[in-house]
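Bumping my old thread because nobody answered last time. Still need a sequence for this structure:
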């Protein structure tokens, strides 16, 4: 049983922030900027190639200092050390949480149960490297002797979202002679569409699953095996040439029929949503090559070092975490919009949804109390400028407060005319418009008739962060992901919840397993659900052809 911690709302800094909030509710970003001409030059921080401008948040120096007091009173420093040291901070599963070990340099030492895990991490990286070189160099042949041209990653959640996001984000660096597909949904369409134009003789499946028991992944893997065998004349031996696995569960991998020599291992101290830089990143390495993959890891590691060592007032993940607490718990925001002005990052918001919401979507503290404050906000978003023409209306003039994380790069990877400057002008304009708005006087001064004025006023005072970097390289992507990972941890520590388990996904899984046979053997099963579920099942049985 974990020791009881002091309830969050009884902490001195929390109470001080409650008081401070009353003053803060009077502030407008317009005035905060007008009072301090250097605000935009002061309220920022930089690390691992990322520049964070947080000046367009509704904060003052006092707010920041109170938030940092809250972090200190919550024991954040000790919590960070506990994670890096390999303590079993995933208490409900009694596990260490060591995604930081996945990017630790060779020669580092991180000890779990008396064993330094870093050499194991590098052994797997070396195995991935050798395999990637064989595939990319055409030396790994399929069953009929043809080289592999198509790679299909089968996985879901953390075994899919990271690989997809990284593939899309780093597409500029990928080998265009290889085709990559990602199958996650148990909806058969996902598999059918991903494979309908592929030649089985040239296709390699990576079955990615930490547990190797996930219903969707195992169902898709079985369909993949059937598809392959059908295409290659039913020869069982073909499986070894066309399937590899990424998992922590050698027994299940072998039971599926994949030789464990073709298994890339990771460990129970890597959470699914923190695993894109483990062997789960095999598809990423195949796509961008081992050197770029190692650059990605180097970016993660730079941000790790920064998180562990930088003082809180200069610490990017800590600042972002604390600002999120301020917006969520004190200003009443319920969501965060993540808005990358970089088309390659189009899957980044979806990736962050699992990272943030599966981590901090909890209403019970580590010591088992129901919280009496909000925890993880809802993350969502789309790349700019597309979102500007759909949901930004609500962010500018709606009734809800929606803090935004803008992400932008100084240089495009593939310059095209003046596109990039137009893109950049838009991201800067949006953050400016959200913060400063447009007053009724300004609208009137443009000759707007009185009746139209209220419709054209922008209240402003909408908070945002801008994360700015030179260009989207593998290293920068690593730093960016690590920034959010550690910001999630910062928030979890303050909310006193455990960001590394996910019990909330279990119930639905169990119920679905119970319902499957009821759908397929209509007559033999008496339905014992609630009347709504029973009725829907009966309707399905009638409609089923
Ligand atoms: O159902 C949630 C979850 O357990 C995620 O946390 C995880 O990333 C995903 O399922 C996939 O799990 P696995 O890699 O074990 O197949």
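Sorry it took so long. Here it is:
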């Amino acid at each position: 049983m974990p020791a009881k911690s002091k309830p969050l709302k009884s902490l001195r800094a929390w109470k001080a922030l409650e008081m401070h909030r009353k003053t803060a509710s009077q502030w407008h970003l317009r005035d905060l900027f007008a009072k301090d001409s250097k605000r935009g030059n002061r309220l920022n921080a930089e690390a691992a190639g990322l520049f964070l401008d947080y000046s367009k948040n509704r904060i003052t120096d006092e707010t920041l200092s109170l938030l940092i007091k809250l972090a200190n009173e919550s024991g954040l420093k000790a919590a960070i050390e506990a994670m890096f040291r390999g303590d079993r901070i995933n208490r409900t599963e009694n596990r260490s949480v060591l995604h930081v070990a996945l990017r630790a340099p060779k020669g580092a030492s991180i000890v779990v149960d008396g064993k330094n895990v870093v050499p194991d991490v590098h052994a797997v990286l070396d195995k991935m490297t050798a395999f990637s070189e064989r595939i990319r160099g055409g030396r790994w042949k399929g069953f009929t002797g043809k080289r592999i041209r198509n790679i299909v990653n089968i996985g879901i959640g953390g075994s899919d979202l990271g690989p997809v996001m990284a593939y899309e984000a780093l597409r500029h660096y990928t080998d265009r002679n290889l085709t990559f597909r990602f199958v996650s949904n148990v909806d058969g369409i996902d598999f059918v569409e991903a494979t309908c134009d592929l030649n089985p003789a040239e296709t390699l499946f990576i079955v990615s699953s930490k547990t190797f028991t996930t219903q969707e992944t195992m169902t898709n893997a079985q369909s993949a095996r059937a598809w392959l065998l059908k295409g290659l004349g039913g020869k069982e031996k073909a499986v070894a040439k066309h399937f590899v696995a990424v998992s922590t569960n050698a027994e299940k991998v072998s039971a599926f029929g994949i030789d464990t020599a073709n298994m890339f291992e990771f460990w129970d101290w890597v959470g699914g949503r923190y695993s894109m830089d483990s062997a789960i990143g095999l598809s990423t390495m195949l796509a961008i090559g081992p050197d770029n993959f190692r650059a990605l890891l180097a970016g993660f590691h730079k941000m790790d070092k920064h998180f562990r060592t930088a003082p809180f007032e200069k610490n990017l993940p800590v600042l972002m975490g604390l600002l999120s607490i301020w917006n969520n718990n004190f200003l009443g925001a319920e969501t965060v919009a993540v808005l990358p002005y970089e088309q390659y990052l189009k899957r980044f918001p979806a990736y962050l949804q699992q990272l943030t919401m599966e981590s901090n979507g909890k209403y019970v503290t580590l010591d088992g109390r129901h919280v009496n404050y909000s925890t993880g906000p809802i993350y969502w978003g789309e790349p700019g400028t597309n979102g500007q023409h759909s949901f930004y209306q609500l962010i500018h003039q709606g009734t809800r407060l929606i803090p935004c994380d803008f992400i932008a790069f100084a240089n495009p990877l593939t310059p095209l005319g003046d596109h990039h400057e137009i893109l950049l002008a838009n991201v800067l304009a949006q953050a400016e418009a959200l913060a400063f708005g447009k007053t009724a006087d300004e609208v009137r001064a443009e000759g707007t008739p009185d009746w139209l004025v209220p419709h054209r006023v922008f209240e402003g005072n909408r908070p945002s962060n801008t994360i700015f970097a030179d260009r989207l390289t593998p290293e920068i992507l690593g730093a960016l992901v690590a920034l959010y990972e550690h910001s999630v941890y910062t928030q979890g520590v303050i909310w006193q919840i455990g960001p590394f388990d996910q019990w909330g996904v279990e119930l639905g899984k169990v119920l679905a397993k119970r319902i499957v046979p009821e759908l397929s053997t209509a007559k033999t099963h008496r339905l014992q659900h609630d009347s709504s579920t029973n009725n829907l099942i009966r309707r399905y049985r009638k409609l089923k052809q």
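Residues 156-159, 209-211, 214, 217, 272-273, 358, 502, 505 surround 6-O-phosphono-beta-D-fructofuranose (CB under 6 Å). Let me know if any region looks off to you.
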